[in-house]
Amino acid sequence: MNDATIKEGRYLYCAVSIPDRESDFSVTGVDDEPTALIAIDDVGLVVHECNSLYDTDEVDLLRKWLLQHQQVVDAVGACFGTPLPFRFDTIIRGNDDRVREWAHEQADGLSRHLDTLSGFWEYHVGVTVEERELEAGLEARDEQLQEITTRIDESETDGGTNFLLEKQYKQRLAVLKRRRRDERARTLCDRLADIAHEVHDRDTGQRSIDLTDSKDDEDDRMTAQLARLTLLAHEDREEEIGDILDDVAVKPGVTVRFTGPWPPYTFTPAIGDEQECKNATN
Amino acid sequence: MRPTKRDDDAVVDLLDVILRDGAVLEADVIITVADIPLVGLKLRAALAGMTTMTKYGIFEEWDWRYRHRARAEITEESHSHSKNTNE
To answer: What DSSP designation does A35 have?
Structure first.
């Protein structure tokens, strides 16, 4: 916590449909605060009382808060079905009545989004391939690489020509590897797109903030990222997605990571303005 | 294969998603991540590739001033809002 106090506020975790259900729900939330469910007709909002923002320069603490946030949203999902998760550290000024007032204003939008997302979850797919598998057989199929190899064999071992040819070889190999990787990724993407409601290709390079303790190791340099995808899919299609990934995982040198089901963080709208179709990854 | 939630790397990956995504609520009474200077700053620094510079203290003073000012604004807004509500 920090010194930016709010007189009275409610930290918002998520909204969820609660038709004909008891609105009795409480788990431990961010900063070990007890959560509560505020029912507004058939929509429930999970909150905790707070009077300060959650700001820290300690990565461990931020990681703990994010995990606690996720644990609450996860528990809500397990209890009531797909929640509409709010962004971390979304706080509404005021008390429970102010939350109800705001929720009434947004009732149509919240209900519509919850209906749309009902039964849908977010899944993450990461596929890596060993570099040597990506290279396998490329020279046998590419005339240009074969020609460069022949010229390398004919040139003086330590000469300048040899050096340049080696460089040419590496460049051509890199192009072919990239093409092969893109082709495989596209094939996987197309197959998954037939089953999932939405497939997002995630930017593999950037994380918002480094929340890991790990450093680069040798393994990272020996493997290449083939695909890093985020899927919005109905829970009934989960098995089919797994089957497709099994097909990919049996190929030599390939490792597949399939995680979920997560609350649909990536596929949530902006609520309360005209641009409700906002999506953070677009 | 079946999806898992027990993969440590996957959780770290998810935390980044939680920090960046989730429904954004647009209303006067809402304070969102956009108002939180440090997290916001870290996001921007990472995206702009300035992480290293921040790490070595180049932006520390600016960071401090930025956060201090933003916190003051938020506190002020909060107080004026509660004042208006009370009126």
So the answer is: P
Task: Determine how β-strand A84-93 pairs with β-strand B30-31.
Answer: antiparallel
Angle at A205 between CA A136 and CA A13, to 5 degrees: 130
Q: Is residue B44 part of a domain?
A: yes
pLDDT in tens, A114-171: 999 999 999 999 999 998 888 888 888 989 999 999 988 887 777 788 889 899 999 9
Taking the Cβ of residue B80 and every Cβ of chain A, the question of whether any pair is shorter than 8 Å is answered with no
Burial tier of A167 (Cβ tally within 10 Å: 0-12, 13-18, 19+) = exposed
A-facing residues of B in 7-46 (CB < 8 A) are 7, 9-27, 29-33, 35-39, 42-43, 46
What are the residue boundaries of the structural domains of chain A, listed by start? 5-118, 122-131+178-267
Among B14, B21, B72, the residue with its CB nearest the CB of A280 is B21
Q: How would you label A201-224 residue by residue, b for 16+ Cβ within 10 Å and e otherwise?
A: ebeeeebbbebeeeeeeeeeeebb
- Number of domains composing chain B: 1
Phi, psi of A277 (to 5 degrees): -90, 10
Interface of A with B in 121-160 (CB under 8 A): 123-124, 126
Q: Classify A95 as helix, strand or coil.
A: coil
User: Which residue reads 């003086």 in tokens?
Assistant: A156
Given CATH 3.30.70, say whether it is the number of domain A122-131+178-267: yes
pLDDT tens per residue, chain B (87 residues)?
999 887 666 777 788 788 777 777 766 666 654 444 444 444 444 444 444 444 545 455 555 665 566 666 665 655 555 545 444
